[in-house]
Design goal:
With 223 residues, this protein is α/β, with parallel strands linked by helices. Helix content is 12%, strand content 20%. It is built from two helices and 16 strands. A seven-stranded parallel β-sheet has the order 4-6-8-10-12-13-15, with no helix packed on it. A hairpin with a 5-residue loop joins strand 1 and strand 2. The protein is elongated, with a radius of gyration of 19 Å. It starts with 18 loop residues before the first strand and ends with a helix.
């Protein structure tokens, strides 16, 4: 898991960002957050290079870093902190993530198809034109996400949670939704066609929304 050291500025409650030594390896110990680090451009470049040069990334704290036009394909992230990060035009086919945090991150025009993401938190994240198609997204936290013009098609969403999620023009076609929880959500033009909606929890079973989904599924799938 990433280091929980606080920023070296006494009045700051932010976690310290990971430092990289001259050999391109992670340094354990005290450091500043991105706001207070003396050279934020250098630390951002160091972290980008670290990810590019390593296939397996463990315990990296990259909170608030921006990543643009990068290829994360087949990268493996374990216990990393990407809270409040911005990901733009990221290609990430086959990415693996375990016990990592992407809370309040922004994903724009990203391709994360065929990823394997388990026990990971995206709470409060924003997905815009982002593809998770064909991914294993098991026991993840999508609470409070805002998703627009994005796709989870052909994915396994077993036991993942979408509490208070806002979903617009987003597709969940042909997904495994067993034990997936959709509670206090907002949906606009969302498709669950060919997905096992009867195995998911949409607010309370028997509610008007759940019944409507069930009837459409029996008629040939939700559009």
């Amino acid at each position: 898991m990433f280091n929980l050291n606080k920023c070296m500025v006494r009045a700051c409650d932010n976690l310290a960002i990971s430092a990289i030594d001259e050999n391109g390896e992670l340094i354990e110990g005290k450091n500043y957050c991105l706001i207070h680090t003396p050279d934020p451009g250098k630390i951002q470049a160091d972290i980008v290079n670290y990810i590019q040069n390593h296939e397996t990334i463990i315990g990296l704290n990259a909170s608030k870093i921006s990543f643009t036009d990068m290829d994360f394909s087949n990268k493996k992230f374990y216990g990393c902190n990407f809270m409040h990060c911005t990901f733009t035009n990221i290609r990430s086919k086959g990415m693996r993530s375990r016990m990592s945090m992407f809370d309040f991150a922004v994903f724009a025009d990203c391709n994360l198809v065929e990823s394997n993401i388990l026990f990971t938190s995206f709470s409060g994240a924003t997905f815009s034109h982002t593809l998770f198609t064909g991914s294993d997204l098991i026991e993840n936290n999508f609470n409070g996400v805002f998703s627009m013009q994005s796709s989870f098609d052909d994915s396994n969403l077993y036991n993942s949670r979408f509490i208070r999620a806002k979903l617009s023009n987003t597709s969940f076609r042909n997904c495994n939704l067993k034990k997936a929880l959709f509670n206090q959500y907002e949906m606009d033009n969302v498709s669950f066609k060919m997905s096992n909606t009867k195995e998911a929890v949409f607010e309370d079973a028997g509610s008007e929304i759940y019944t409507d989904l069930e009837e459409k599924q029996e008629e040939g799938g939700t559009q």
